[in-house]
Amino acid sequence: xxxxxxxxxxxxxxxxxxxxxxxxxxxxxxxxxxxxxxxxxxxxxxxxxxxxxxxxxxxxxxxxxxxxxxxxxxxxxxxxxxxxxxxxxxxxxxxxxxxxxxxxxxxxxxxxxxxxxxxxxxxxxxxxxxxxxxxxxxxxxxxxxxxxxxxxxxxxxxxxxxxxxxxxxxxxxxxxxxxxxxxxxxxxxxxxxxxxxxxxxxxxxxxxxxxxxxxxxxxxxxxxxxxxxxxxxxxxxxxxxxxxxxxxxxxxxxxxxxxxxxxxx
Length: 265
Prior knowledge:
By secondary structure, the protein is of the alpha/beta class. The protein has 11 helices and 8 strands.
């Protein structure tokens, strides 16, 4: 395992392949292995960097005030890029990872040469949503992850994609409930990224599973309309994790996008 120190934690990451850098940011409550099909596929053509976010996988939560904000995650990722001497990357994030990607591009647009937003949404939290996230944080601290993982599995992975369910369930159960609660409280306070998306100068790819109920196709269409240079791809027969549910279809879309970014020699 490889680690690098940030201001707040010791970040674990995978760094495979060579070529243009592709930074993969996982969602909640998962870890970097959420991207295993893409690590295997794209490390043939790219330098694929896949970290465990603060408090997830093998990365400890570190000093916490009870809330891990999206900006905390974003600055950890910039510290990782600095440690690896990567000046710019294609930045891909799914769900919470997509919101972290939006925060990173808002703070450090010069570090991003292509943006991939999968199964995510840009709006700030509603009052009802903020209350729900904080209530769930309280529940996870009290009960742990098992009950939550059981309840949401069929929303994360469509019931007809049973091949992906065991891995997803294991990741959710293995997540530290203290870290998961801190991330939920931080996401409850996130800003609205819709104005940020209108300023993104690099090419972007928006991907969504057709049957995603957490971030439906309408959210992806909104992001596509806001981004000045974007492509929208809807993955059929997938829910919230199309990269695991339909990896061949997801990888084909991502591969085409990455090829479009190749600069003439």
